[in-house]
Specification:
alpha+beta; 7-stranded antiparallel beta sheet; 2 helices; globular
């Protein structure tokens, strides 16, 4: 009876691991599909208002207006004070200031993170850009990221 119970637990554990791997592969495939959709749009100039909440490091938290020209962040302004540009401040956005940077950040974590506490990525159905990102690596403190695009505008 004990050997049979051990076998059942082994089979259940295997099924759980297969389901987790399958789900992770599906999430990666969806992210790749959305990144391709974003690239096919050819959008290089845009403005987005974002809500960024990141623990750890010197990443700013709050709402920001990011203007991107030629695929590079041109300005990062405080949403509650659009006259204040923090692009050149000591506080750095780093990996979250363009759509491409956000895709790269998620993909980097996917490659090196086998154990997610939370990995929710919601992308725009027409343009493919990540609209809402909620990430938390299990057993790693100060690595949580919540990023949401509140407004998105294509610029000429």
């Amino acid at each position: 009876m004990r050997k049979q119970t051990t076998k059942i637990y082994g089979v259940l554990l295997s099924l759980i691991l297969i389901a987790q791997f399958s789900c992770a592969a599906s999430q990666q495939n969806e992210l790749i599909r959305n990144r391709q959709l974003w690239r096919e749009s050819g959008i290089k100039n845009y403005r987005m208002t974002v809500d960024l909440q990141k623990t750890g490091h010197a990443t700013p938290n709050g709402k920001f207006i990011i203007t991107v020209r030629g695929g590079i962040a041109d300005s990062i302004k405080l949403a509650n004070d659009p006259q204040t540009d923090i692009s050149d401040s000591v506080i750095k956005f780093g990996k979250y200031d363009t759509i491409e940077d956000i895709f790269e950040y998620i993909e980097e974590l996917d490659k090196k993170t086998p154990d997610w506490e939370k990995r929710d990525v919601e992308c725009d159905s027409k343009l493919g850009y990540p609209k809402k990102v909620n990430l938390d690596v299990r057993r790693v403190h100060d690595e949580e990221l919540f990023f949401q695009v509140l407004q998105f505008e294509i610029l000429k």
